[in-house]
Design brief:
DHBP synthase; binds threonylcarbamoyladenylate; Rossmann fold; 12-stranded mixed sheet; 5-stranded parallel sheet; 2 domains; globular; binds magnesium ion; single chain; alpha/beta; 33% helix
């Protein structure tokens, strides 16, 4: 299959959106930018189209998809028994990086929800995404547009790496704004519960709803507790290299990483280091590739570059990567949730 690339870095191209919408309406796959990460879209109400997503990504079929909509009214078609909290959250955070789990209606085929009786819904804050959703019929299932298990794509080149020749079209909207997937909140069982941390923090949700819980599987970080979001149980976001996080007091972390990197480099293993603008000059450079993920003064920059940096290290074929830990004030939980998964829980405390 030839994958068409449509460039819309400086805004919507009506003609391109019309063509993309047509592809979606006849059951095809179109990757598109959102404010969080790139999504791989298909008509959520068409069973065969949704099934194609699983095939293109190599995704396990029990891992449900998020249905993307372009206006609040669309929720009524795909969800049933919509609680008042959904409207409150929509008014506060939509369009935006928040996904709500609701009871599903009969309009949504089981292929889209991985057989669950609930559906994930999100109204993204990106003009190209919303134009595409409308053009494609209003209900677009879209997981992150990466091959299953790889880091999520934050630019069109990442999507092309994984999906060229496999999907019909990629819309290139430039770099995404946030760089981490949406916060997922479950509204189907008692107290609203966060299933995946993201840019919309627990404090922000509590500001609207009162008490909000966090899925125990996220906190306990224990492989025996099954997360409520099926996708959170898989090794994820992972680079090809072995990734090890070193946490502790800044100066000791730098020293430990240098020591480990030197040992590895001496053994002829290609070694990478993930530091920051503040720390990069402290690291040894001989036979070691040092990259800055961003500035500790700007946690948004760390979130934005995380997946891209993991992919860059894949391209330079390092064997092992040592990373600092980023417990930043607001986004720290979301950043570390992804980094710890990417590291397969390998953490050294100093
Ligand atoms: O920011 C995002 O949410 C991006 C962009 C493209 O919108 N999408 C995204 O989709 O991250 P995906 O498929 O990579 O992650 C969806 C997550 C998975 O962990 C899945 O298990 C969970 O949402 N999920 C989907 N439907 C669910 C449901 N009914 N109940 C519980 N978890 C659900
Ligand atoms: Mg994903």
């Amino acid at each position: 299959m030839r994958t068409v690339i449509e460039t819309m870095r400086s805004g919507i191209d009506e003609e391109g959106i019309r063509r993309a919408g047509e592809i979606l309406r006849r059951g095809g796959l179109v990757a598109f930018p959102t404010e969080t990460v790139y999504g791989l879209g298909a008509n959520a109400l068409d069973e065969t189209a949704a099934a194609r997503i699983y095939e293109a990504k190599g995704r396990p079929s029990d891992n449900p998809l998020i249905v993307h909509i372009a206006d609040w009214e669309a929720v009524r078609k795909i969800a049933a028994d919509i609680p008042g909290e959904a409207r409150l959250l929509a008014d506060a955070f939509w369009p935006g990086p928040l996904t709500m789990i609701l009871r599903k209606s009969d309009a949504v085929p089981p292929a889209t929800t991985g057989g669950l009786s609930t559906v994930a819904v999100r109204l993204p804050d990106h003009p190209v995404a919303r134009a595409l959703i409308r053009a494609g019929g209003g209900y677009i299932a879209a997981p992150s547009a990466n091959t299953s298990g790889r880091p999520s794509p934050t630019k069109a080149e990442h999507v092309a790496r994984d999906m060229d020749g496999v999907i019909d079209m990629i819309i290139d909207g430039g770099d995404v704004e946030i760089g981490l997937e949406s916060t997922i909140v479950d509204l189907t069982e008692g107290t609203p519960t966060i299933l995946r941390p993201g840019y919309i923090s627990r404090e922000m949700l509590e500001g609207v709803l009162g008490t909000v819980e966090t899925d125990r599987a996220l906190i306990a970080d224990d492989a025996d507790i099954r997360p409520k979001a099926p996708g959170m149980k898989y090794r994820h976001y992972a680079p090809r290299a072995e990734l090890i996080i070193v946490e502790g007091q800044q100066e000791q972390v730098r020293r430990k990483i240098n020591e480990l990197a030197a040992e590895n480099a001496a053994r002829g293993r290609r070694t990478g280091i993930i530091g920051t603008d503040e720390s990069r000059d402290f690291y040894i450079k001989e036979n070691v590739e040092v990259k800055s993920i961003g500035s500790r003064e700007d946690e948004g920059s760390i979130a934005r570059h995380l997946y891209g940096i993991l992919r860059e290290f894949d391209d330079s074929e390092v064997h092992v990567i040592y990373s600092e830990s980023f417990e930043t004030p607001r986004l720290g939980q979301a950043i570390m949730n992804r980094l710890i998964k990417a590291a397969g829980h390998q953490i050294i405390s100093v």
